[in-house]
Amino acid sequence: MNIRNSFIALLISCISLTAFSQKGLDAPMTKAVMNVYKQLLSEDPTDYETYYRRACEYYKHNQYALALDDINNALKYVPENESVMRIDFLTLRANIYQQQDNLEEALNDLNNAYAINPESYLVIYQKANIEFQLGKYSEAKIDYQRMQRINNRSQESFIGLARVAVKENNLGLANDYLNQAVAIAPSNSDIYVRRASVRLLMNNPNGAVDDLILAISTDNTNTRALQELVKLGDTHYSAVMNGLSNAISQAPKVGMFYYIRAVIAEVHYNYLAAITDYEKILNENLYNYYGIYNSLAKCQFALGKYSQALDNVDTALSGSTNKEYYVTKSKIKRATNDATIAVDFANKAIAKDPNYNEAIINKAYALIDLNQYDEATALLGEASLNDANNALLFLTRAWILENCMNKKSTAQVFYNRALDVETTGIKSLRGFALYRLGKVADANSWMQEMLSNVSESDGYEYYIATCFYAQTGDHPKALSYMEQSLERGYASYHDWVDFNIGIVNVSPIRDLPQFKELLNQYSIIFEK
User: Fold this and answer.
1) Domain 26-117 has what CATH class?
2) CB of 115 within 8 A of CB of 124?
3) What is residue 120's three-state secondary structure?
4) Is the pLDDT score of 455 beyond 80?
5) pLDDT number for residue 263
6) pTM, whole model, 2 decimals?
7) Homologous superfamily of 290-371 in CATH?
8) What pLDDT, on a 0 to 100 scale, did the predictor assign at position 385?
9) What's the angle, vertex CA 521, arms to CA 517 and CA 523, rounded to 5?
């Protein structure tokens, strides 16, 4: 599962934002429209306008190969004298190429569009940005300057010129451009998000955090600022938390700042800090939202405080039958050995959203507890269809087949499936699959490569390393990485002590005296 993305979505919904939700190509209205396009093209295979409109629809739904086929046909049949249409078609194809990381072809199309209309602001802007991505800074600078000649109050051009100045190591000029961009429209929150991105290029994460908080203060419906702030917490956690603490010191009654800080702390396994902020919001009535009780419950569940967690999730459910709240209760019930009730609450969540993977996975886990392995593997297969790049689903399915159903050859298929996921980094869990397939040297090399890339860590990577070496039988290494994980604050007591499904857990070392000693030594991260 993508925990961080789910927290971002929760954060946005909690402050009453309206997010755009794109329906798939199977949505009834979309299918009807696509059928009309198909009929029109069967009647006239040279209908370039219909090719263009269908390409736009495919592009909107991330079907870039299909969109490219259609826009190629549109450009094939559109007359040379239809200059406005040709520009639209070329810029769409450039967008498609950009999504496919084919930047040279994208730039070629934009150069052709520019040749048709050298005064098109949007074409020049897109062209300049791709030139910047390609490292063609001189060409990008010329195009950003062209934008200024068309519109001398162009914020985009000042931001672009600032980015180029950073690459030219002229930070003073970059700051001048940034200040000019802000001065044009200081009440526009988006400009602070853009300035934050440039400040990151300047290796100034503190300034970037301040800008994102300023964007939120200017407009608390700025979803992009919220997303970027949460994402920045992955790489510059201390800067983000310090920036939010400074904002709280200046505005101690703004519940939103406490909530954002709590969510980011929770994402990074700092549950005690998150609980402190959630309780502050509730105790001082800074924000009224039943989801805060669910957030408290999740933190308490992670800390192994199941009774407290149950009380809070019940409070959340008393005000809303939210699918996430049902899953939280299902997890708590499973942790307290009430697997049958855990299944019931997972079913309540699934009834609200049949594709809700958190509910499907938790139901599968509860069914494993009930020894209903066929149903559990079927559910994990369903979850894999919803999230084909979640390696953990394939690993867990393989583990059930191998260890619970004595189907080792079938299990091998799913260990290999885990190797095919497109997820990169430590979340690919590639080493676990390699080890179970007997490729021990490759598995160890993968784990060491992952650990060599750890920078500012919240302990998660070292927790995964602990699981890996616990499962491979190298207990001294497992205990060493356990200490590093705890030292960095990985505070999921549930994971350390109770979670036992599959092969990504620490169960093989739980009975070691050193394991219990380390938990006692770092008890400060679990207890107030």
Assistant:
1) mainly alpha
2) no
3) coil
4) no
5) 93
6) 0.81
7) Tetratricopeptide repeat domain (1.25.40.10)
8) 95
9) 110
